[in-house]
């Protein structure tokens, strides 16, 4: 038994949930190696090498991998995966893009977004927007698994493990990076945040979202949103929490002007404490909250922010 | 340019699903069925590309029970030219679906496969990426904008932290995110016309493919319900709870 973990990174750092991903990998029981693919990755590799339990870090550093282009990354991952029994990645956009492609190159099925390891071949994963939990057993010669990192506790740190440079491998197939528009708010990233404040359609406009942001800043929280708020253009796409957005697991989740559709709940079920603020006492969100406060968000949010 | 749009028949997103009595599958007997919402978006994009004169033909294909005819008729009504139904009683895993689709794409000589990013029943998010790998084609997943020009696709993708734009030569696989477009509704005359369009229906076994079957569903259950919460009357009461009882804010 041995596991290769594909590490996602952003702006030269491994993503916040990486320590949780390693903890899922360690639960499988075998040795855990990490694969870092990208351009100018020295810092990332060292961060990965310092995660407790990592045996060694393989680093493929080349311009062809810039912009997280999936084609060469999946080819390299499939090649490097050969000696391992398990291949893991987080269910981040990067993991979702690259891992299934590598699985198909290896000719094996993938198990997506596991939330629990039962044994080295048996896993639990949510289906139907988290309304149901499936237990699946995978009988593939190599087990390729994406992980909902928020469901696992993070590992600590260790003295840096060995980093080994790999020769670049894999073709881009003519794919070119044309541009990026990345949001840099200075707030914590949604998936790793300790506190998340999310606004929904009830917030009403992009300008009004400042009320949500003010509360978030007081709490040093990340800002999230429902699909309705994103579709209406109040906030950028990648703020969306839910079945088809981000899955968060903060200590505190505050949902403001959000009705509580199944698809939204799917993204916040892992929160320890949920607070709902809504003017409709019958909103389904209240049945999924630890604390409910009925009232107008335009009065309650400023009061809450002021009293913190 | 011919476009293939794979569409999956799923339980409608508004249905509250439950496990079956034996805890081995999802209770679907009386549920309302629909086209997977992400496939609707893929279909809409394909139809728009045809309307702009960029695509010559839009072929929808579904793999599943014969009842998926209903979803294919709906797809024909919003502008697909032809429909293909590969019937099987067994639910296939994404790699097997991708294997069947790779066969269909090759047979049809399509230059673009437009899929949903995810099926809202199994929430797998794998098939498009696997299809691209099997065909050796480039992929653009989670698309929020697609432009096709002179044999290249330029696609804006939704990624963690924002948007990223890639360009790639055709043939290629693109999977759709929610904000790519807003699917149209079918007009009544088109629904009537679609009823008469034939669906090319074939048995999966007749394709002679050896399909992956490596994942077994052992059980399906409802998640642990969240402990009942309480209503608070004021901001002060809320803060009191969060600070002193749960200690989640300082
Ligand atoms: C395939 C698919 C995928 C989806 N994926 C997601 C997803 O990932 N994430 C997601 O969130 N949704 C998703 N959805 C959409 C989801 O079904 C709901 O439509 C959406 O979550 C509703 O957003 P909302 O709660 O903000 O809006 P609404 O349902 O309109 O609720 C607004 C709430 O605000 C309250 N309100 C209004 N004014 C005030 C006020 N002044 N003070 C206090 N309260 C007020 C109202 O009482 C109401 O409860 C998906 C849907 C589909 C079909
Ligand atoms: N049985 C099927 N028939 C046709 N297309 C499918 C089927 N299963 C999956 N797909 C396609 O693959 C996409 C992603 O599904 P998945 O990888 O299962 O989440 C869907 O949006 C469809 O476009």
Report what the structure shows.
- The complex is a heterodimer of chains A (308) and B (250).
- The longest helix of chain A has 14 residues, at 93-106.
- Chain A has 308 residues and is of the alpha/beta class.
- Chain A has helices at residues 18-27, 42-49, 70-80, 93-106, 209-218, 227-231, 262-265, 297-307, and strands spanning 2-7, 9-10, 13-14, 31-38, 54-61, 86-90, 110-114, 116-119, 122-127, 132-138, 143-147, 162-165, 176-182, 195-199, 222-225, 252-256, 273-278, 291-294.
- A 7-stranded parallel sheet of chain A has the order 7-11-6-1-4-5-12, with helices on both faces.
- Chain A has 2 domains: 2-165, HUPs (Rossmann fold, 3-Layer(aba) Sandwich), CATH 3.40.50; 190-307, TPP-binding domain (Rossmann fold), CATH 3.40.50.
- Chain A is globular, with a radius of gyration of 20 Å.
- With 250 residues, chain B is of the alpha/beta class.
- Chain B has one domain (2-224): Rossmann fold (3-Layer(aba) Sandwich).
- Chain B is built from 6 helices and 13 strands.
- The model of chain B has no long low-confidence stretch (mean pLDDT 96).
- Strand 18 (291-294) of chain A pairs parallel with strand 13 of chain B, so a sheet runs across the interface.
- The structure holds flavin-adenine dinucleotide (FAD) and adenosine monophosphate.
- Adenosine monophosphate binds next to helix 1, strand 4, helix 3, strand 6 and helix 4 of chain B.
């Amino acid at each position: 038994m041995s596991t290769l973990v594909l590490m996602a990174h952003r702006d030269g750092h491994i993503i916040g949930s990486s320590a949780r991903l390693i903890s899922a990998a360690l639960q499988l029981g075998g040795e855990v190696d990490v694969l870092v693919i990208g351009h100018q990755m020295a810092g990332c590799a060292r961060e990965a090498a310092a995660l407790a339990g990592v045996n060694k870090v393989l680093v493929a550093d080349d311009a062809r991998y810039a912009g997280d282009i999936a084609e060469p990354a999946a080819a390299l991952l499939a090649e490097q995966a050969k000696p391992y029994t398990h291949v893991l990645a987080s269910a981040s956009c990067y993991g979702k893009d690259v891992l299934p492609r590598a699985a198909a190159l290896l000719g094996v099925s993938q198990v997506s977004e596991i939330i629990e390891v039962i044994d080295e071949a048996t896993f639990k994963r949510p289906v139907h927007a988290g309304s149901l939990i499936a237990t699946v057993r995978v009988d593939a010669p190599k087990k390729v698994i994406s992980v909902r990192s928020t469901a696992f506790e993070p590992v600590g740190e260790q003295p840096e493990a060995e980093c080994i440079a790999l020769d670049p491998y894999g073709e881009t197939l003519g794919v070119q990076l044309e541009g990026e528009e990345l949001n840099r708010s200075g707030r914590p990233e949604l998936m790793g945040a300790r506190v998340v404040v999310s606004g929904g359609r009830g917030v009403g406009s992009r300008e009004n979202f400042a009320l949500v942001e003010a509360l978030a800043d007081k709490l040093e929280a990340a800002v999230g949103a429902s699909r309705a708020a994103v579709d209406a253009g109040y906030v950028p796409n990648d703020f969306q929490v839910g079945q088809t957005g981000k899955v968060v697991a903060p200590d505190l989740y505050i949902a403001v002007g959000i009705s509580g559709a199944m698809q939204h709940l799917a993204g916040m079920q892992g929160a320890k404490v949920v607070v709902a603020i809504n003017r409709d006492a019958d909103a389904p969100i209240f049945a999924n909250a630890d604390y409910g406060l009925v009232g107008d968000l335009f009065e309650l949010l400023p009061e809450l922010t002021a009293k913190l | 340019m011919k476009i293939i749009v794979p569409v999956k028949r799923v339980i409608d997103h508004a249905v509250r699903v439950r496990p079956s009595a034996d805890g081995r599958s999802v209770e679907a007997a009386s549920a309302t069925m629909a086209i997977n919402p992400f496939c609707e978006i893929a279909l809409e994009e394909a139809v728009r590309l045809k309307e702009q004169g960029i695509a010559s033909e839009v072929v929808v294909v579904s793999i599943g029970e014969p009842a998926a005819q209903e979803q294919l008729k709906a797809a024909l009504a919003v502008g697909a030219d032809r429909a293909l139904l590969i019937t099987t009683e067994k639910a296939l895993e994404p790699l097997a679906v991708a294997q069947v689709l790779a066969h269909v794409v090759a047979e049809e000589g399509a230059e673009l496969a437009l899929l949903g990013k995810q099926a809202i029943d199994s929430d797998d998010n794998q098939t498009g990426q696997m299809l691209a790998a099997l065909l050796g084609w480039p992929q653009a997943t989670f698309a929020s904008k697609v432009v096709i020009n002179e044999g290249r696709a330029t696609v804006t993708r939704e990624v963690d932290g924002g948007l990223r734009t890639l360009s790639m030569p055709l043939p290629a696989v693109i999977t759709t995110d929610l904000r790519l477009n807003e699917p149209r509704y079918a007009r009544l005359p088109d629904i009537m016309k679609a009823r008469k369009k034939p669906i090319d229906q074939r048995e999966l076994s007749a394709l002679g493919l050896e399909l992956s079957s490596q994942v077994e569903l052992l059980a399906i259950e409802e998640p642990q319900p969240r402990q009942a919460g309480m209503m608070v009357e004021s901001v002060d009461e809320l803060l009191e709870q969060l600070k002193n009882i749960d200690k989640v804010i300082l």
